[in-house]
Amino acid sequence: MKKSRFFALSLLLVFSIVTLVSGCASPASPPAPEAPAAETAAPPATPAASEADFSHLKVALISDPIGTEQFILQAYHKVEEMAGIHGFQWTSMECSDTAQWEENGRAAANEGYDLVIGVGWQAAEPFSALADEFDHVHYAVIDAIAGNDKVTSIGFNETEGCYVLGVMIGTAFPDETLYGYVGSFQTQATYKYRYGFSEGVKSVNPDAEFMYNYTNSYSDTSLPYEYTTQQQAAGATFIFGGVAASANAGIYQAALDLAQRGTPVYTTGLSVDQTTPDNPYIIGGALKNTGSCTEIIISQYLDGTLSGGAQILGLKENAFGVVHVTTDTANYLNEEMMPPEAIEAAKAVAAKIIAGELEIIAPEESAN
């Protein structure tokens, strides 16, 4: 009898302990419902370009000798920067003469480069031929329109940018009756500069007149000097420097010399910021941002959207700009000749163009 009672008490004690432990434990989560048979698991998300593995990709940049040429350095530094972000391989090839554009473009293809970017109009013709020969290579050109639609061509909307520049100059020089322009060749390409600038000036000064001269060269500095002195003698106080970033040096020297004679003229830089305290007569300029163009080309290539044919980029894409207007800083600001109201007027017009509220299109020169 005692054994039975002891056994019963033991069972009761064991049952109590088990119950106590079970009450302290967290309840088990209910099993997840099974997905309906008709549904399938979603595929993993495609990684962003910055997360993808591009270590196998090879990008080549081909240009004139780089040196301190900002037009090329912008593109060079952008490739370098994007390679650091995305991990692709890259190289830079410089051309000391015209023949080397084709030679370097071919060498890049033979060395396994996937994307070849040429900075400069010299790349357009040789890359057009190479694109047919090397179907597996994507060729791109900045600052020219290639004849082969397999090549990605990045051109600039010079007209709208020069219109903004014209507004700024017209506001800064409101009482002028004659504005000058010294360009390289008389072509539709240079006409877009002329037209945009003159229309911008006339939007502020409707009675403005213009004087044009062409050097038929991208490198001659003597004719720009001569034409600058002639246009100043004719009554122009402002002369648009449209020859080339380097050949404009003739205009800049003429401005310094004329100032010493007491008959100053003012002018602009081309493609890059050429304002400098050493020459306060360079008071603005048109800009070509090859860095932005390079970034667009590489980004589109990485995400698989880069196609052949032409892309015309301008203010909206930060590809073509104006010193003091589309830049936060400048090498130099001549506050006496470039007042704040001139810069603000130009910024207001640039904002309208970017927003699509104002469109400036140059007609064919023969139709004007």
UniProtKB/TrEMBL annotation:
<keyword id="KW-0732">Signal</keyword>
<protein>
    <submittedName>
        <fullName>Basic membrane lipoprotein Med, substrate-binding protein (PBP1-ABC) superfamily</fullName>
    </submittedName>
</protein>
<feature type="compositionally biased region" description="Low complexity">
    <location>
        <begin position="35"/>
        <end position="48"/>
    </location>
</feature>
<feature type="region of interest" description="Disordered">
    <location>
        <begin position="28"/>
        <end position="48"/>
    </location>
</feature>
<feature type="signal peptide">
    <location>
        <begin position="1"/>
        <end position="27"/>
    </location>
</feature>
<dbReference type="Pfam" id="PF02608">
    <property type="entry name" value="Bmp"/>
</dbReference>
<dbReference type="GO" id="GO:0005886">
    <property type="term" value="C:plasma membrane"/>
</dbReference>
<keyword id="KW-0449">Lipoprotein</keyword>
<dbReference type="InterPro" id="IPR028082">
    <property type="entry name" value="Peripla_BP_I"/>
</dbReference>
<dbReference type="InterPro" id="IPR050957">
    <property type="entry name" value="BMP_lipoprotein"/>
</dbReference>
<keyword id="KW-0472">Membrane</keyword>
<dbReference type="InterPro" id="IPR003760">
    <property type="entry name" value="PnrA-like"/>
</dbReference>
<keyword id="KW-1003">Cell membrane</keyword>
<feature type="domain" description="ABC transporter substrate-binding protein PnrA-like">
    <location>
        <begin position="79"/>
        <end position="357"/>
    </location>
</feature>
<comment type="similarity">
    <text>Belongs to the BMP lipoprotein family.</text>
</comment>
